[in-house]
Amino acid sequence: MSEIENHERSTVSVIGLGQMGTRLAQAFLAAGYQTTVWNRTAEKADALVGEGAVRAATAAEAVAGSTLVVVCLPNYETVQGLLGPVAESLRGRVLVNLTSGTTEAAGRMADWVAGHGAEYLDGAAMSGTRLVGRPEALFVFSGSPDAFTAHRVVLASLGNAVHLGADPALAPLYDTALFGLAWGALAGFYHAVALVGAEGVDPTAFAAVATGHMPFVTSLMADHAHQIEDGHYPNDDGTVEVHAAAMEHLVDTSEAQRVSTDVPELVKALLDRARAAGYGADGIASVVETIRKGERDV
């Protein structure tokens, strides 16, 4: 008799025990949910079993073990390749796919899952692995609203679980967009640390001031989102012309400190394009107009 058969049906099964999958399983266990786990390399489940998880001998057993099945694998092809032979076991279950991929892949996966009588939620972990299980960890989901409602409390064990809508493509879309946002902010931070570091400023001392500045930056995002929605760009936060001049100063200062100008040159190019397109006297949110039109020549 298998370990699954020796236990009552689990609340959730986690398939794929890499760094993220392991943290997902730990979060479910910490919240008190009986959790079944499976990984192709069985040894990766050992520590989780020691923490109270139920080991599935096969992927099929993991799927059969719970109504809610969470997969976290390298790509969508791996998910379908793994679940394909046991697809009929998905019937009546909810598959939550926390594998990163494209919007097109999410749509295909949703259709495939629906074709086997299951409900589908695509999802993305937006806060890395170290915050999993804490309220500040953001997890976005899209797909079946009924499935999300039914399992919202369990999924909230992972963090702040946000349902974006019925279109399964929304989660990977947000995942990609937020990844770009995070890297844009981090690139600015890394450049800033290098710039002040050229004058001997300690990175942690700068970070203490920079993090205090970020609420203002995030408030601009909220305000500028409304401007973009309205298509009207007041210049209360400075015009494109003013910011272009300031960016030129940042490039010059970086050159003087012998710091790479890659980051400010990118922003300068965006401002120059907006200025050339006739937005020089408008607010800086107007930069979005040239970005979304794909205009690359000033």
Report on this model:
With 298 residues, this protein is an alpha/beta fold. Helices cover 51% and strands 13% of the residues. It contains eleven helices and eight strands. An eight-stranded mixed sheet has the order 3-2-1-4-5-6-7-8, sandwiched between helices. The N and C termini lie far apart (70 Å). The model is unreliable at 1-9 (pLDDT under 50).
Topology of this structure?
Blueprint lengths: L9 E6 L3 H12 L4 E4 L7 H5 L3 E2 L3 H7 E6 L4 H8 L10 E4 L5 H12 L4 E7 L12 E6 L1 H11 L4 E4 L6 H28 L5 H28 L9 H17 L5 H18 L7 H6 L6
Parallel strand pairs: 1-2, 1-4, 2-3, 4-5, 5-6, 7-8
Antiparallel strand pairs: 6-7
Provide a brief overview of the structure.
With 298 residues, the protein is α/β, with parallel strands linked by helices.
Overview features:
about 300 residues, alpha/beta, 8-stranded mixed β-sheet, 8 strands, about 50% helix, about 15% strand, elongated, disordered N terminus
Helix segment tally: 11
Helix proportion of residues, in percent?
Answer: 40-55%
Order of helices and strands: EHEHEHEHEHEEHEHHHHH
For the sheet with most strands, the description reads: 8 strands, mixed
Total beta strand runs: 8
Work out the radius of gyration: 24 Å
Mean residue pLDDT? 94
Q: In terms of structural class, how would the helical and strand content be classed?
A: alpha/beta
What oligomerization state is this entry in? single chain
Principal-axes shape call: elongated
List low-pLDDT spans. Answer: 1-9
- Strand neighbour order, sheet with most strands: 3-2-1-4-5-6-7-8
Give the strand content: 5-15%
> Span from first to last CA?
70 Å
